[in-house]
Amino acid sequence: MSAPRILAIETSCDETAAAVVDESLHVISSVVSSQIDLHAHFGGVVPEIAGRAHVELLEPVVAQAISEAGGSMTDPRIEAVAVTNGPGLIGSLLVGLSGAKAMAMAWGVPFVGVNHLEGHLFAAQLEADGVPFPHVTLLVSGGHTMLIAVDAPGHYRLLGSTIDDAAGEAYDKVARYLGLGYPGGPAIDRLARQGDPEALRFPRAMKDDGLDFSFSGLKTAVVRAVDKNPDLDIADVVASFQAAVVDVLVTKSMRAVAMSGAKALVLGGGVAANSSLRAAATVAAEESGIPCALPSMAMCTDNAAMIAAAGWYRLRAEGGAELSLAADPSLALRMEVA
Ligand code: KG4
Ligand code: ZN
User: Fold this and answer.
1) How far is the CA of 203 from the centre of ligand 2 (A)?
2) Which CATH class is domain 133-294?
3) In the chain, which ranges are continuous DSSP H helix?
4) What is the CATH number of domain 5-121+300-318?
5) Of 111, 173, 262, 338, which has the fewest CB atoms closer than 10 Å, so is most exposed?
6) pLDDT tens-digit series, residues 68-83
């Protein structure tokens, strides 16, 4: 008899993803179908197109995840179904949520809703052996930039967040302005390797001692610099932009670690796939004598394995959800009650 398994589904934005993960968080299968090609032409995610694509992709993606785990749609060999019910695009969330409810009902297994952000917080648990608690997670994605004290699984305190653009949003906007395509993060990451990060000195918004972030001034500074001097080497521009983003993210993360007495720094979210951020965070954590847990690139960007990990936790802590559970586009991460 193999360990109990959960099927997780993630459709909050532009990835249709399904995964089968066992109770000890061993990933049996993880399938991610990206819609990047569908949206790249428009320079960003088009909600209507995303919703329609999820409708087409959900069943084949789930069937593939189940079959790679040795089951079939009639005999899935899973004990529960977890699904992201927010935050995200409402039309996209609803596709995954209704699919998950129907499957749980047909298979007669419990069903549990997962907060997408809690999924990102659990991603490191899937791969790194025993990330110690308490730790600080820097959650940096296209929609969020947060510093979260994770005292124990499910016990979170928000230490800081962005007051304007998310870090990934800044990458995407700068890339769009420079004509580098969508999504901007990976394109800038690649091009920055050929540039000089000290060619231009862009502002670091961290005058105060706080843990909040602001990236819109940096984005404007990049636009101004290029408008003023169109002959600038674009590789130098993006390398200098990235140096400013990474500098702020790492400085504030280490400040959060010091203030909260964390035993590790954890990165999560799409921007945590950034090579420069990964290197700088690793060095800074090492200098402070703590480990830096870096989920693999595939576990940083949106996937369903991380939803499965958070799903196991929620299922054990609270039991299954009612089938009336709603999708909530602005679902907040539940913080610890002080
Ligand atoms: O977590 P994610 O896949 O989706 C959201 O929940 O938002 O994050 C997507 C974001 C995009 O803004 C993308 O440009 C950024 O992550 N990203 C990166 C890299 N790979 C993805 N940003 C910087 N460097 C990267 N290598
Ligand atoms: Zn995400």
Assistant:
1) 27
2) alpha beta
3) 36-40, 47-68, 90-107, 116-127, 167-177, 184-192, 216-228, 234-260, 275-287, 297-300, 305-318
4) 3.30.420.40
5) 338
6) 999 999 999 999 999 9
